[in-house]
Amino acid sequence: MNRAILASLCGSAIALSGVGCTYLSSQWNSLHQPAGQTHTTIRKVVLEDEPPVQAMTLERLENILQEAVDNLEGQGGIWQFDYDGVFMVLMTSDSHDRMRLVAPITDLENLTPEQQQKMLIANFHTALDARYAIGSLGGQPVVVAVFLHPLSSLGEEHFRSALNQVSQSAQTFGTTYSSGDLLLRPGAIERSPDPEDDVDI
Q: Is residue 117 part of a domain?
């Protein structure tokens, strides 16, 4: 019998155990051995455990801010600072495991219907992890660029990316409404939303 056909008929057995797996493969020669004298090759492949992800803490956040931003003020999980010329506020809650990075853009009373529509389109196509929103700072309703994330699972590189994306979103408000170079659909800002349009992702 052809060896390839025989192998496909015989198949193989895989037994999973813990972090490794044992692969049992009957060799061609074992088919010609007397009963009870089969040869079996056992290969054990150990899957290396990934290093544990270091939880983000307020101390780690403050250390990153001290290195990455200008004019840092605040403590206890609430800071204000400048990043790439953009004023930002970072608010965190240990008990709720949340963080919020906000950059005020303009007072709500200055927002036009056209800008509001473009903000919503940008949130789907060009704002990436950042978002445009209407919030409140100091009791004053304002248009903001914002990034939200669980605190403990926030990685350092992700946080640094968030700083850049919120900064870019604030600076491109009124023009490209973009938090970076990636556009999920080029030209989306120039188009009005149409329910019959196909959604490009």
A: yes
